[in-house]
UniProtKB/TrEMBL annotation:
InterPro entries: Ig-like_dom_sf (IPR036179), Ig-like_fold (IPR013783), Ig_V-set (IPR013106), TCR_variable_region (IPR051287)
Protein name as it appears in the record: Immunoglobulin V-set domain-containing protein
Domain Immunoglobulin V-set intervals: 7-81
Superkingdom: Eukaryota
Keywords: Adaptive immunity, Immunity, Immunoglobulin domain, Receptor, Signal
Amino acid sequence: MRTRTSISSNYFFWYRQKDGDSPKYMMVLIRGVGSFHSTKFDESKFGAELVGNSLSLKMEAVDVTDSAVYYCALRPTLTGNTNTLNKNLCSKDNTIVQCLH
């Protein structure tokens, strides 16, 4: 999955939401530094890549258990512990993120 953004953020967050469940934090990709994964997601299976303003989510050995909605965010949009996530309601910046697949 690839996304393109019109702003040059330095932090990109990936979340996965399975049917009937809340979104789960997967990883953050920091421009020029690399990605940092949640311990609940296998680093060898899920990865992220940033080239210019194009962000890609890479998945290896995909199977039916990976069926979900995958979200990217330019800043943390969910907060909480690893069991309960809450949507942040205040945001000063809005941007359009185009998902290409």
